[in-house]
Amino acid sequence: MSLEQLITNCINQDAKAQSQLYKQYASKLFTLCLKYSRNYAEAEDNLHDAFITVFSKIDQYNNKGSFEGWLKRIAINTSLQRYRDNAGVFDIVNEERIEDVKVDINDSDVSIDFLLGIIQELPDRYRLVFNLYVLDGYSHVEISELINISAGTSKSNLARARMILKEKIEDYKANFNSRSI
Fold it and tell me: With 0-12 CB in 10 A as exposed, 13-18 as middle and 19+ as buried, what is 136?
């Protein structure tokens, strides 16, 4: 069945088409939800909520852009909804005090599993901004709109996330090097 027919059938509330759509995109969307969730269980809840939104609003998909991109946007927005109403999650800072921190990652120094693990351990406010900016390519202005914070707060949270990651990577390298001696 073509994607267009699958979408049409989902619009018509066809349970088999909805099941097929879920099977086709659930793993990709779950990975995305996991990036923006505190843990596995929350990611599962976010995925479930995202598909409820997809099935209730699929008639609003207007074939502009990719369907997968539309699905991803819903998954991200669903995951971020938990944080939008809780502005206290984010620190308000003076933009002039933000310093750009570079994280030097040499592929041979740390594993991708380690990197993903330390990103997941970041406090919510830092993890969300880091993922949106670094991994998904959103601008600070877009992030500010997505999670109801200022662009300066987004920049600050990104800088702090990078600082934490830099420290964890340096600690890991130091511990790894001391064990190999």
Answer: middle
* Token pair listed for 5: 């027919």
DSSP 8-state secondary structure symbol assigned to residue 134: I
Give the pLDDT score at 86.
58
Q: Are 31 and 71 in contact (CB under 8 A)?
A: no
Statement: residue 85 has pLDDT above 80: no
Pairwise CA distance, residues 141 & 132, whole Å: 11
What's 132's DSSP letter? I
What's the pTM? Answer: 0.72
Helices and strands in the chain: count of H runs, count of E runs:
8, 0
Residue type, 98: I
